[in-house]
Design goal:
By secondary structure, the protein is an alpha+beta fold. It has four helices and nine strands; from the N terminus they run ββαββββαβββαα.
Length: 170
């Protein structure tokens, strides 16, 4: 199994080194990440349900795709590659903003990320990678917001933090 690294950064996204992904999450160190939100022509968001075997937040609904660029990897290329790997398609992505957040996860892990947020448009069904994603659906934003209020335990912590900010930027 390939050991994945994350890029440690300061609050201005200046790289400070690298660290093994699990160690960075155990220590709660700030690192670079990206989140992708793909909508269709109806304005519905493509959600994914994370595979149960994920190292955290398995079985929870979240945005279309997210990950960490590898050291020496271009952020935009990394986002496209990960979208293709997890959801089985690619589309034009726009890097719309970035922000920093910190949240406790399951398994004694902490997500502390400088997260670059991308949006895209796609209308077809994805071809999901079952090792990464157990289910998917397009869902109207108002329905997502209502379901988040009724069943927040069904969604990843970062999705609950980021959704409203994404909606302000689109």
């Amino acid at each position: 199994m390939e050991i994945q690294q994350v890029i440690l950064v300061d609050e201005n996204d200046v790289p400070k080194g690298t660290m093994e992904k699990m160690e960075a999450h155990q220590k709660g160190l700030l690192h670079r990440a990206f989140s992708i939100f793909v909508f269709n022509d109806k304005g519905e968001l493509l959600l994914q349900k994370r595979a149960l075997n994920k190292y955290h937040s398995g079985g929870l609904w979240t945005n279309t795709c997210c990950s960490h660029p590898q050291p020496q990897e271009n952020l935009d290329i990394s986002a496209h590659n990960r979208l293709q790997n997890e959801m089985g398609f690619d589309c034009t992505l726009q890097n719309v903003f970035h922000f920093t957040y910190k949240t406790k996860l399951d398994n004694e892990l902490t997500e502390h990320e400088l997260d670059h947020v991308f949006t895209g448009l796609y209308n077809a069904a994805p071809k999901i990678n079952a090792l990464e994603v157990m289910d998917w659906k397009y869902m109207a934003v108002k329905e997502i917001q209502q379901d988040l209020k009724l069943h927040p335990e069904n969604y990843t912590s970062w999705f609950k933090i980021i959704l409203d900010t994404v909606l302000k930027h689109i």
